[in-house]
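**User:**
My hope is that you can spare some time for a protein that puzzles me. This is the protein in question:
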Amino acid sequence: MEKILISACLAGDRVRYDGRRAPLENALLARWKEEGRLVKACPEVAGGMTIPRPPAQITGGSGLDVLKGRARVVDNKGCDVTGLFIKGAEYALSIAQKYGIRLAILKEKSPSCGIHRIYDGTFTSTLIPGAGVTAALLTANKVLVFSELELDLVERLLRAGAGDEGEARLF
C-alpha cells in the first residue's frame, strides 16, 4: 500500500510554532489514516526546534535558495535557524526514502512545508510564491508535494497508480 508523508500538524499533533493544534478535518484524510497510509513528520521539531518556538521565515529567497546557501531562515528575534530547518528537511527526506514515499501533503505557508506560498521574511504577513525548505528538498528528490488544499489531486494520483520508475501516471 502506498504511503503518504504528512505534516504532523495536519495530522493533529501539537507541533506548531505556537504550540497549538491545527488538525485537518477531511474525509479523504480520515480514510487514508484508517488505511494506514499516513506517515507523520514535523521537520522543524525533527530539526531540533522546541514547542513553542519563535516564528521563523525565509529571508532572501525560497526553500530552494536556502538549500543552495543563497537564503537563510531566521526567527522573529533575528536568530539564524537555517541549520535546524535543513536538518529537519533531511529527516523528512529520510522518512520518505525509508518508506518508499512518493507523495507528501505539507502545510502551506510554512517555511519548512509551504508548497506554493511562503512568507517573505519581513514578519508582516506578506506571502510570496515559493516553497519551504522541506518541500523544496522533497521535490528535488522526486517526491510529489501537495498542500492541504490539494487532497483531491493526491487521491487521483493514488487511484492512477504508479509506474515502475516511481513516477505517477498522470491520467
Remarks:
- The two ends are 20 Å apart (CA to CA).
- Confidence is low (pLDDT under 50) at residues 163-171.
